[in-house]
Fold these 2 entries.
Entry 1:
Amino acid sequence: MQVKPGHIETYSGLYVDPLDLAPADVRLEDIAQALSNTCRYTGHCKRFYSVAEHSVRVANRVADLGGDFTAERFALLHDASEAYLLDLPRPVKQQMPTYLDAEEQAQRAICAALLGGELLSEKSRKLIKQADNDLLVTEARVLMPSHGAGWGVPGEVIRFDRPGWEPLEAEAAFVGRALDLGVPMRYSAACPAKEVPA
């Protein structure tokens, strides 16, 4: 088989175009595998710390802050596009409008596939941002040489037990949390999801 230009092979063996991801391309196992092997902070942290571990911790923080079931689901998948597009540092992302467009499209496809077109309230969106910032501040304090000094990120330092899960542990935690939240393993054409508005 000839691979189409611009396509990548995923863990499950699918070939997908990361710049034009469709709901039918999405598999929870691909997301969990990729995120558990992707280090945050472009690898410049004191120990390996995966995007999958970060995502589980953000979902848990949303629950601690009183977020509802839907908010927890979106929180777990808030960086899921990075399974297809990689984790770029915030300052780099902000200078790359094409990347931001692809990231937004991938997130919409992932949400359509795995969250069935659920909508996120503005309150929940703010709660996820708060949880993400709380984790950013906490992670920086523990994992970065500067401890986050001068980063200017508003957030609260929270309890942060045993950071730096091994990839297999992070993958299992991510999938387990997803299944606990009712996230399906893959998109089903028999039950097509609605597009999630941008």
Entry 2:
Amino acid sequence: MKIDLTPLPPPYVEFLGLLQKFHIDYMLVGGWAVSAYSSQRVPGYLDVLVRVSPDSMKSLQQALLAFHSAPIDLTAFSVPGHTYRIGSNAEMIVLMNQIQGIDFGPAWTRRETTLQDAMPIHIIARHDLILNKQAVGRPKDLTDLAALKI
């Protein structure tokens, strides 16, 4: 599948680079993922789904500190469905440990990868994105589903 990801703002590229540096499995989800598969969505903040494990949580803490973000409460973030927000509305990053309709492990094996500034960017597969949008079902998700032409 062709991925056409809008160039990410520099803070997003920096953060994703740190996730990779600290060996954290992640996938873009939400608006940026929709925009990679459809030109009909203007992405807003960056939704990032991360794999939760004891090792990845320690690495996530290191990545956040390297990004000059406040430390995360690892116990709270390990609870399924928890999110953590970084930054302001203009360039906010939302970390998620779970999204509706998919399991991280199988979705990770189906992820798509594109390059920006020679750095791999991992994006949830279109099929898994559709499953997520169907499971959530908000009006914005239904609009996204139409843009994804299901």
